[in-house]
């Protein structure tokens, strides 16, 4: 009798656990944008309310959490993420074996920025981001400079010279706010260097990145690009340029109108909004000019998807993951989340909402006008931009090497990729 009671007790517990575990499938999302964590969780909760499917949003990023390392650990566990994030070709190749191909996904025909590999779709674009040389509209006008006249390195240098000669009259300390210190190699070795990879080229022209990955340098193009870096460094606020992790100081110099230009992308919008809310004032008018990364006339910003959601085919709920992403791209609730809650520029053509934040709204104007140069920096070998190239920029900014040595060192690093 005791054995029978024990058996029945074990059986009851087993069925109870099984019922609890199996009654409501849970979708696990592992993502790397801390700034959208709350908004994404709120959207996921609303999706649960609408569909009855549970979602667990887990976020890892910033200085306190190494996303790549932690993702590898998560993928070794029993409760693997169903959806996670890659940031380009390197990430795709690392996880290629476990990624689910999107076959006939409705959202894929509504975007130009899906991640594809050999003709197949594997990545859902999280958002659109981009950068140019942001400027203070009123301040530039105070200097008598028409932004429409700035289309090349030569015309931008003329504008910089005008600012330098008259900056004391306008309370300005330098033309540009840019940071090139040890903590800002993502600005230099990735975003700025992308000018060498794509400026002036058709959006699908990957010839320069293909050459780089094969150890081939375009000497003439690199020399033109070095002129651009020198121009920026010479006209930047020097204490911001050479300090370490100086993102906050870089942005503050621009927002306090100590500089006319800012070298950053639309991802700084939340900080801009927060700054002016603290000040109790409205933001000044801002717009973008192209980076004059190489010689010739340039007319576009660097615009692309910074990251993609991918589906882990070894996860517990890959089909549920597909449903979640279809909802995100194709519903009013998803569009509202992307634009008004997460303050992102959406990658989907059907989205009619316009961001209210200043640089994102400006970026969307350029994107809709077809004025875009591609992002290729994420197709470089892992760590090459930040860890290999970034320190060379720091040496140049500090005056420890000349422009010619800057060119020589970058050339050597690229040739080592052969």
Give an overview of the whole structure.
The chain is α/β, with parallel strands linked by helices. The protein folds into 2 domains: 150 residues, D-Maltodextrin-Binding Protein, domain 2; 219 residues, D-Maltodextrin-Binding Protein, domain 2 (3-Layer(aba) Sandwich), CATH 3.40.190. It is built from 18 helices and 12 strands. Strands 6, 7, 8, 9, 10 and 12 form a 6-stranded mixed β-sheet that branches. A 4-stranded antiparallel β-sheet has the order 3-11-5-4. Helix 10 packs across helix 18 and helix 14 packs across helix 15. It is globular.
Short structural description:
Helix content is 46%, strand content 14%. By secondary structure, it is an alpha/beta fold.
Helix content: 40-55%
* Helix-strand sequence: HEHEHEHEEEHHEHHHHHHEHEEEHHHEHH
State Rg: 24 Å
Structural class: alpha/beta
Number of strands: 12
CATH class membership of the largest domain:
Alpha Beta
- First-to-last CA distance: 76 Å
Mean pLDDT: 91
Mass-distribution shape:
globular
Enumerate the spans where pLDDT stays under 50 for 5 or more consecutive residues.
1-23
Produce the secondary structure layout.
Elements: H1 2-22, E1 26-31, H2 37-51, E2 54-59, H3 67-74, E3 83-86, H4 89-95, E4 115-117, E5 120-125, E6 129-136, H5 137-142, H6 153-166, E7 174-177, H7 185-192, H8 194-198, H9 207-213, H10 219-234, H11 238-242, H12 247-255, E8 259-265, H13 269-279, E9 286-289, E10 301-304, E11 308-311, H14 318-330, H15 332-341, H16 358-368, E12 372-373, H17 384-397, H18 403-415
Parallel strand pairs: 1-2, 7-8, 10-12
Antiparallel strand pairs: 3-11, 4-5, 5-11, 6-8, 6-9, 6-10
